[in-house]
Each structure stands twice: as structure tokens, then as C-alpha cells.
Amino acid sequence: MVKQTTNGQKMSRMNLQLRKFIFPFFLIVFFISSSYINSTPIYSLKNSYSPAQKGISYGKNGMVTTQHFIATEVGEKILNKGGNAFDASIAIGFTLAVVLPRAGNIGGGGFMVMFHDETQKSYSIDYREKAPKLSNRDMYLKDDGSFNDQKLSTFGYLSSGVPGTVAGLWEVHQKFGSLPWEDLLEDAIHYAENGFQISPYMSNVLRTYHEKLSYFEETKKIFLADYPDFKNNLIQKDLANTLKTISTNGRDGFYKGAIAQKISSSMKKNGGLISLHDLSNYEAIWREPLKSDYRNLQIITMGPPSSGGVHIIQMLNVLENYDLSSFEHNSSKYINLLAETMKYAYADRSEYLGDPDFYDVPLSKLTSKSYANSISQNIQFGISVDSSDINPGMYIDNESSETTHFSVADKYGNVVSSTYTLNSTFGSGVVIEGTGILMNNEMDDFSSAPGIPNQFGLLGAKANEIAPYKRPLSSMTPTIVMKNNELFFTTGSPGGARIISAVLQSILNIVDFEMNLEEATYAKRIHHQWQPDILEVEFSIEDNLNKELSNIGYELKVSNPLTCIQTIMLKNGTFSGYGDFRRPDAFASGNIND
Length: 594
Ligand code: DON
Description:
Number of helices: 19
Bound molecules: 6-diazenyl-5-OXO-L-norleucine
CATH class: Alpha Beta
């Protein structure tokens, strides 16, 4: 692809080739520096060998992309059995809980955005964790009102919200599933019971998180059994039994009975708050997805309690005022525009976003074209406005007031885009005794106190303060983009605060810069979240670009890649998929029969 740019320069294939070389090289250096020793044998499970994505995957009858190649294969298997995208997504959700324990889960929660072909309608389900009944606004503060900096919101029993994943997957099955529920848990149970081969990447992750995984005996027993020589095969017998109970008893297998008893008694014993009452009262909620248009496309995305969709729409509305295709991709002028746009969106996030069941989020204002126009009128090229001079909502009309993403598309026309999470890598670090359930630390996504950033540096206000039964604000942004009522592409990513900016750039790369999936994934991403007032760039950037951005006034920080875009596109009747190289086990595949 060759793109004309403002100053006559071209973004050439050569540039892309260079990146293709630099990025994997960076990853290799990263692995070596993290003391990964190549002692892990090559995968041998017949159906598990599939190292990082090599090129775009194509398929006529559907496409699956997940952050682990085994989960991708399970999704394909379900589609090949005649299941639909919803069935495949449920099976993937359970399988990732086994093969990607850093993020896949039944002890966490998430969001799913869907397009249902038969009704020609889009849907979204909120299966986000909820604050336990016994939680309260000041639970992470000391008696004098100052923040208790003991990691209580990020580590251990007190950091967990009531999990939503099982309820969410169950609801989706009740509404759209076509295969029996038990069939969708079969593979997850198989891999938990018989084990699966740990990939070099996962081995490296286990090493990196050794300290966190060692703290609680139950967690250590499962994930660090043979440390320092990792087992080749990770077996999770307790998790297999838990999944069997869920397979037999449906959602009640998790929220009532023996498993719920184990969760609540373990919480009680260790200072956690989740009770039997919290579990049996948990409900996933069908919510109207957010819809907007960008140029000639329809955007379908997740609304609150995720902030992702609101700010994707807000930023696209701002950027629609510019002819982006005439910009040089990732030039200082382009990055300047993105960064300024992001500052306004993240500033608004800090003030106006929270659980809509508790706080009246000004949705229509934040996503209105007129609000976006006033923001764009205040962006000036060549200037980085100091974040302290940007206040949330300053141009609102003042008359009144380690996550993972997977996507599936099937031959019937259904599309699923889901992001779910334990929050941090391996969540709270707690595995509930005798269940294999790794618990989330989603309580950290609430705002603990004004001015106290969460682990992603995000600030929050009243809208996102802790309250019993409330859902913490999220950045997860599962998104479907349609063209003339047909799938164009679907995308999403992990990465905390960076999810929103990564999804935005993946949309712009495809829509405005006409990149194919590989190019759109390889392109370097930038991130600005208003506070801290820092422009993050992935990997190193060229000296002259660095200088140009510094001259505009940005404080630059080069950061490790933290996002992992999973995208599926439909073009001329063929699906394409790409698993982001930034998390090497990610894999897209479309091996689906007629
Ligand atoms: O819901 C959120 O926004 C965060 N809990 C997501 C965490 C995340 O993406 C971590 N992954 N890398």
C-alpha cells in the first residue's frame, strides 16, 4: 500500500518491512532480557501447535481470533460442528479461562457486543464484576481519610468484585446459543483436566509473575508447581471439576451450591467481602449498545459501565472534522491531532463516566457531533495544550448541566466482539481453595479517592466511587464496524487505559489509511490519557519525529507494547483475521468447513 501524504512523502511497504523486522527483534530482546531460557520443548499436542500469527488468515465461512491459539482452535471446532458465533464465543470464553489464566477467566468479567443476523440487530451484554454488598466508598482509605497505599485494591481477597463471566456466557447461550451448553464446555474441561502445553511466551509470563503467583499457597500449587523448571503441561484438576459443575448445572453451578459456598467461605476466612448473597444475586445485563456513524460507516460499541465506546465515538466525532487520509500516518502532525483529541476524551472520562445504574452519565452530550466540533475548533496544530489547562467537559454546552479480547464471525452473518478480564495479570493473585478459580482485582477500577489514580494512572470522581452492587468503570471497547449493514470489521484489545486509544487507532488505520489487517496491527500506537501529561509511544521512535513532538511540547515516554488488537474483517465475501504479535500466542484462523 502506498499512501500519499501532505508533504509528498509516502508510507511505503519498505517502511512496513522495516517495522516487521524491528518489532519481532524487540520481542526477542525482551524475552532474552526477561531470562527466558529455551528449555521449553516445542509444542507437541497435535491440535495445539500454532505459534504466533504468520500473515493474515483468510476464510470463506467464518473467522476466529483470540489471544491463545488453543482457544482459537476450539472456536473453529464449534463453528465446524455447525455452531454459531455465539456458541463459539462461549466455548472460547471458557477455554481461555484454562489456557490463558493471566486474563481468561471465570473469576472476572467483561463485555460482549454482538450483531445477530436473523434479527439484523445489534446487542450488548454487560457481565462486568459488581462491588460486594459489604463494600463502601472509603474501603481503601485510612481512618484519617488518606489513601491506604497497601495495594488492597489490587492484590488479595479485598480487591475482587463479584465475578460476572459465567452469568454473561450463560445469558448469551440462553438468547442465541444453538448447541447444547455442555458441548461448549467440553474442550475447556479437557484442557483443564489433561493439561496443555505451556508456550514459551506463557512460560516467560509465569516467570515474570513468579512473586505474585507465589504469595497464596493455592495459587502457587497450581501455577508454580515445578518452579524453576516449569512443567511442560499445565494441569488444573480443580478448575476442571468446577467447569464440570458449571457444565451440568449451568450458571447456578457457579453462583449457588458448593462452588459459591467455597468462594464465600474463603472470602470470609481471608478478609474478602464476597458473600453467598452477592453471588446468588449477580445478574449480567443486556444493555443497548452505543451506535454512531463515522464517515460512511456504522460504529456499534459498548456503553457504560465501560467508558470505551463513549470515548471511541467522541474521538471519532472529533477526527471526522479532518481529512485524515491526507495526513502522513504517524507523522508529528497526525500524532499531535490524536494526542490532543485523546486528552479531552480522557479528561471527560475522569469526571462523567461510571455505572449508569448509579450515575447519570451524560451520554448524548459526550457523543454528540456538536460537542466534538467544539473540541476540534480548540485543537491547534503545533501546540500541545497543557493537561492542567484542560478540564473535563470544558466545551460541553453549558445550558444544563491483563484483559483479553476475542472476536468470532460465522457464515450465518453473526458477529461477536468480546473483551473480558481479571484486571491485572493473574487478577488478585487469589485462587479460591479447591476450585481452581483465579479471582479478579477489578475493585481497583473504581476510583478509591479523588486525585488517587488507579493502577493504569486513571483518575476518577463521584461517578466512579465505590458503592455496594455498583460496577467499576472500564475501558474495554469491544467494537463492530458495519458498512451498508454488513460487517466491515470487528476489533478490541486488552491494555487498561490504552484499550480506547488502541481501538481508535485500529479503526483509523483501516478506515482512513486503508491498511490491511497486518499493516493496521503492525503500525505503532500512541497513547495520551490527559493525566499524567505524557505522550506514550510504542517502541523507539525515529530521532526526527522525537524532536518534532518534543518541539510541539510533548513529554515523551517509550513504553512496552501493552495492547493486543484482535481484528476480523469481511471483504468481498472473504473473512480475514489477524492476531496481534504483541502477545505472541494470539492467533486468528478461519479453517471452517462449508
Ligand atoms: O476494565 C478495564 O478497563 C480494566 N480492568 C482492563 C484491564 C486490562 O486491560 C489489563 N490488560 N492488559
